[in-house]
Every structure is written in C-alpha cells, then in structure tokens.
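Chapter review: from sequence to fold.
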Amino acid sequence: MSDFSFSAARLRELATDVLRHAATAGASACEVDVSEGVGQSVTVRKGEVEAIEFNRDKGIGVTTYLGQRRGHASTSDFSTDSLRATVEAALSIARFTAEDDCAGLPEPELLATKPLDLDLYYPWVLPVEEAIEIARRSEAAAFAVSPLVANSEGATVSTHAAHFVSANSLGFMGGFPTTRHFISCVPIAGKGKHMQRDDWYSGARAPADLAAPEAIGDYAARRTLARLKSRKLKTRQCPVMFEAPLAAMMIGSFVHAVSGGSLYRKASFLVDSLGTQVFPRWMNIEERPHLKKGMASSPFDDDGVATRNRTVVKKGELQGYFLSTYTARKLGMPTTGNAGGSHNLLIAPSPDAPADFAGLLQQMGTGLLVTELLGHGINYVNGDYSRGAAGYWVEGGEIAYPVHEITIAGNLKTMFADIAAIGRDVVTRGSRTVGSIVVNRMTIAGS
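The token string follows.
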C-alpha cells in the first residue's frame, strides 16, 4: 500500500516550480506543501466483509505574500498550467487581503537545516484477503470470550502511507515519508434494551508493533461484558479517575488552552499563565519531537521551523506555550516550533504511583472510573467542563458495578490543579503518552 505515484524527487521538483512561478509573478515570499497519500481500510462485521475502502490523494498548497498581505490557494492537479493558476489565485487573494504585521515566513535562522531520520516509514504490503483475515481473527476472538458477545460493529484493519515536501522562498526544503497502521474491534454484548458496546484499538508506525488482532478482540469483548447491567448514580461529589485514553484527551484540552490561537484571541482560561502553577508540583510534561517511530515525531513544524526537545511543564509550572510563527508574533514571543500541533508529549507518572492499574484503583479508594465520554461540553474561555460519561463505580479500591447515563462536571483549571495521581498504565493516543489520571473531586450528576 506504499506504491506512491510520485517520487520524492518529483515532489521536490514540483515545490521548486511553484516557488519559481511565485517569484516570477511578483510574490515577495512564498511557501508550498506538496503531498501524496495512499491507504486501505477493511471492515468485517459478524465474519462478513462490510467495507473495503481504498484512497489515493495528492495536493499542493501554496501561500504567497505581497509584503505582509497573505493569500492561499490549493490544487490536486500537478500540471504546469495548474501550478501557475494556483500561484496566481493565491496572489490574487493576497492583493485583496488586509496587511497583517504578523504575517510572513519564519526568521531564516529558525528553519530546519539538518535532515533527521526518525524511523517513521514502514509500508505494509497487505493484500485485501489478508486484511480481511486479520479483521476476522480479531472479531472471532471477541465472540469467543462469551456467548453474550453475539454482535459487533465490526473489526477494522487500516493502513496508510504518505510523503510530502515543504519548501519556502528562504531556501528551506524538507520532507519525508510516514506510515500509520491500525487494528480495532467494537463488540456488542447483551440483548434488547440491555446491550452495551465498547472498543479497543492498536496503532503504530510499523505493523510489527501492533498488538495481536486476537488480543485486541479479546480485550474489547471483556471491556464490553464488564459494562452489562450498568446502573445510574445519584448526584454526588467524589474522586474521578480518567482511564488512560481519556486522560490523553484531558492533556489535549490543556494543549488547546495554551496554544497560540486560543491565547492571542483571549479564548482560553489559561491566558497569561506562563510561569504560573497549573498542575501539582510533582507533575512534569516533556515534548520530544525526535522520538524514533513516534506518532507525532517531526524534525520541523508546518512552518519549517526546527523542532527541539523542551520541558512544557516543570514541577507543575507552565514553562512554554505551543506557538507557530504567526501566533508567536501575535503574542510578541518566539515560536516554539508547534505550527501544526504538539509533538510527542510525555507525561510522567506521579511519584507514588502504584505499579499497575489495580493499584491505582486501590489508591483512589472510592470514586468513579470513567471509561467513556460523550458530548463536547468544554468552554475554553472560562474552563467549565461538563461531559456525558460512562464507567464504573469503585468501592474500597475495587470495581463495584458499571454505571451509565451520568454527567461529570467541573472546571479544567481546578481539575488540573487537583490531579491526585497519574498511573503507570501508559498508552499513546495521538501526540500524548500518559497513564490514567485521578482528579480529587468532581461533581457527578445522576438520578
């Protein structure tokens, strides 16, 4: 599935052609991104093939500048005439755009100059028949756990490869190929009004690093069975543990709140929080953009700025925002190399974190374990947080029974400061690697 139609050399030629067209047409500066991707996804439901999808796409994005006026246009047509027309379209937009004193390319000295091999490309030559068999094995393992697991939303095997070149008129040109592969399974247990579903998946750059399809199906089924006979809870306040995949979402909310776009628009509860205590004093967050095989690794950001290791949170204190060239200028600060997002955030377990997940439950004692969140009830301006949830009520460090149809509520600023523990049951979801997070106190709205 990694048979690209264009070589890396051809992508570089196209990028060079765009820059040449832009200079000839009168642009004072230009940046261009040329990319191609190819993917395959197979879904099996109840042993039968439900969907086979193939995708192949390509595109060129062109940003031109006339002084500090900016225009952008894109095309999927790589012909010479189309490239010229796309450059002209971007310039036409720039001519009618107001000047912005923060617009423009990065400072030349910040651009990446040294190529780095971050080991991100592992093409998976996966015939459709083999992908179907892998999906069937995963779903069959789920059905084998119990006769109560008699239905499914399917098991999916997907593979994707892409490569790109980014360049600008300051002389920067860089690019590399990447791959992403996934296996997932979504079993359904129970009957009628008493059905429950849950899921699990494994994702990796290299297919050899994926969990076994049988293990994914088996674990997804056991998660689903554990949710049968769910109850409602009465309204209360108590500790809440966010299971590791949801803890990664909580860290994602933190990233959103301290990203440049939110900060310069004053649309964040963490405006002007640099150098202040945001988390408990034992908590640290590191950004590691150069991890081999990392799901969010890159030698440079979307502006071409070189990425670097840094400490985002040290002893609970916010050390740095997530800024692109543009948003940094809006804030009067230097870029952090985060145009396009964060890179491999590593959140260390709390100093007294138990060895495993069961130990973390024991440490929490009594409270709510959340394994699913519903809705989008986050107000980033003031930090108010309210989400539909499902999970398990925990008594004396042991899971007592599953719960559903509840709402958990609080305020993210308070929740961050009130984190009691971070577990060692680490998972990677997107750019975040973290274990389960326990918050000392939240409001549970139930019956």
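Two observations follow directly from the output. The longest strand covers residues 149-168. The two ends are 51 Å apart (CA to CA).
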